[in-house]
Amino acid sequence: MRVKVDRELCSGDAICSELCPEVFEMDDEEKAVVIVDVVPEDAEDACRDAVDSCPEGCIEIIEE
Ligand code: F3S
Question: How many CA atoms lie within 13 Å of 45's alpha carbon, on the beta-carbon side?
């Protein structure tokens, strides 16, 4: 599974990087960036939590 963040919509709540730091980091603009190409299997649950918890709904899951 892969994820991407719509940076236009991201408001910098940083819930994603708190719930799943293996996948999301905050950058200098206080927006989330995805730091992995493919989400590690052991981070998938945390990543889905992050997707569900993002108040802007701006993280998209790309299933393969
Ligand atoms: Fe942005 Fe949502 Fe994370 S608003 S910082 S992608 S929790």
Answer: 1
Q: What percent of the chain has pLDDT over 90?
A: 97
Transcribe 17-51 into DSSP letters. Answer: HHH-TTTEEE-TTS-EEE--SS--GGGHHHHHHHH
Q: Which residues line ligand 1 (CB under 6 A)?
A: 5, 10-16, 32, 54, 56, 58-59
How far, in Å, CA of 54 to CA of 12, rounded?
10
Q: For the segment 32-53, what is each residue's pLDDT rounded down to a tens digit?
A: 999 999 999 999 999 999 999 9
The sign one gets for the Cα dihedral 7, 59, 21, 42 is negative
For 32, the token pair is: 């989330």
